[in-house]
Amino acid sequence: MASKKNQSEYYDISEMQEKEKTPEAIFRGVCSAEGWKNGKKVTEDEYNSAVAMFLNQPMGRRKNLDA
Questions:
Q1: Which residues is 41 bridged to in the sheet?
Q2: Average pLDDT of span 2-31
Q3: pLDDT tens-digit map of 3-12
């Protein structure tokens, strides 16, 4: 039984940028924050989660900051 949407498919991050219409500045910020380089392949869920995390973080703080 196959699902309509296979969430385990991997896509190039630039394909995901186009598909999700992510602005260039945000895309570059996400790539920098995640350590992604050209050619990186991720699932839709990974991409959308990374973008959401980037947009919801305060500026100037790292996501793994230990207090």
A1: 12
A2: 87
A3: 445 558 999 9
